């Protein structure tokens, strides 16, 4: 049986996070991130659902998630996964695109999966340069070349609008969840706010956003929690700030979505001597 290893690294020069989940079988629930994810499968097979479309992904395939792309994945068989990814915040991506194209825009990746593409070899090389603490500008050079190829071949030059195509009632519900994520919110609250029945709200919301109202709230809470942890807030305090009843509930919830515990995630931002965090299971 493969040993489970989870490694997260913060590259302060490129201002991006890298993850490596090796030997894991974890299923990730339907959720979204507010940052771009560029990932590649080193080994293993997974069923991926993104924006309500299903894919079977395997070794050599690339994954491209835009901010707010809802997705879920699970293993195909009993074998384990080896997955590496780069997480790029929108403002960092915007700066990179301006550097490459001379234009200010947020790229929108058209398809979430690129099957068996050679870019994966460059991504793999970049990943190892980052995790090994490479200091030469070759690392940044490869990074820029990767982004250039991705935005040229697989992206639209249109702004990303989170609520594009969403009707007014659902927008109101989304805005309410954004502002009140730290409180105990009921389905009755949302139903009254939208002026529709609870079942009707769930169906309409899920159809338009690709994710249920509660899963949307969960994703918001995780995003807020990450920001608090990045600045070094105590996980117990973060749990209370983001609507969780206790630290144990928060820890299980965070790991289910991110693949790391809150403390493991926080350590890469507060560790003064190393930006790398290894978590062996």
Automatic annotation (TrEMBL):
Domain of life (superkingdom): Bacteria
Organism: Clostridium luticellarii
Name this protein carries in UniProt: HTH-type transcriptional activator RhaS
Protein encoded by which gene: rhaS_2
Keyword DNA-binding: yes
CDD domains linked to this entry: cupin_YbfI-like_N
GO molecular function: DNA-binding transcription factor activity; sequence-specific DNA binding
Record keyword Repressor present: no
InterPro entries listed in its UniProt record: AraC-bd (IPR003313), AraC_XylS_family_regulators (IPR050204), Homeodomain-like_sf (IPR009057), HTH-like (IPR037923), HTH_AraC (IPR018060), RmlC-like_jellyroll (IPR014710), Tscrpt_reg_AraC-type_HTH (IPR020449)
Keywords attached to this entry: DNA-binding, Transcription, Transcription regulation
Pfam families, alphabetized: AraC_binding (PF02311), HTH_18 (PF12833)
Location of the HTH araC/xylS-type domain: 171-268
């Amino acid at each position: 049986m493969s040993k489970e290893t989870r490694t997260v690294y913060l590259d302060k020069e490129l201002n991006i996070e890298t993850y490596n989940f090796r030997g894991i079988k974890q299923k990730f629930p339907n959720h979204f991130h507010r940052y771009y994810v560029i990932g590649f499968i080193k080994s293993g097979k997974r069923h991926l659902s993104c924006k309500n479309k299903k894919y079977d992904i395997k070794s050599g395939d690339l994954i491209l998630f835009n901010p707010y792309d809802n997705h879920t994945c699970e293993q195909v068989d009993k074998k384990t996964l080896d997955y590496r990814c780069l997480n790029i915040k929108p403002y960092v991506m915007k700066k990179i695109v301006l550097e490459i194209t001379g234009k200010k825009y947020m790229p929108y990746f058209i398809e979430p999966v690129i099957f068996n593409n050679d870019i994966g070899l460059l991504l793999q090389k970049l990943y190892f340069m980052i995790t090994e603490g490479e200091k030469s500008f070759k690392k940044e050079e490869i990074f820029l070349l990767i982004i250039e190829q991705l935005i040229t071949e697989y992206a639209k030059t249109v702004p990303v609008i989170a609520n594009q195509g969403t009707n007014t009632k659902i927008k109101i519900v989304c805005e309410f969840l954004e502002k009140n994520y730290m409180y105990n919110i009921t389905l009755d609250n949302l139903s009254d706010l939208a002026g529709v029945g609870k079942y009707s709200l769930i169906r309409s919301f899920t159809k338009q956003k690709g994710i249920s109202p509660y899963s949307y709230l969960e994703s918001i809470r995780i995003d807020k929690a990450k920001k608090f942890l990045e600045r070094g807030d105590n996980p117990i305090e973060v749990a209370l700030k983001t609507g969780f009843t206790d630290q144990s509930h928060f820890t299980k919830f965070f790991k289910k979505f991110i693949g790391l515990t809150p403390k493991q995630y926080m350590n890469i931002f507060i560790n003064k001597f190393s930006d790398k965090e290894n978590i062996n299971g």
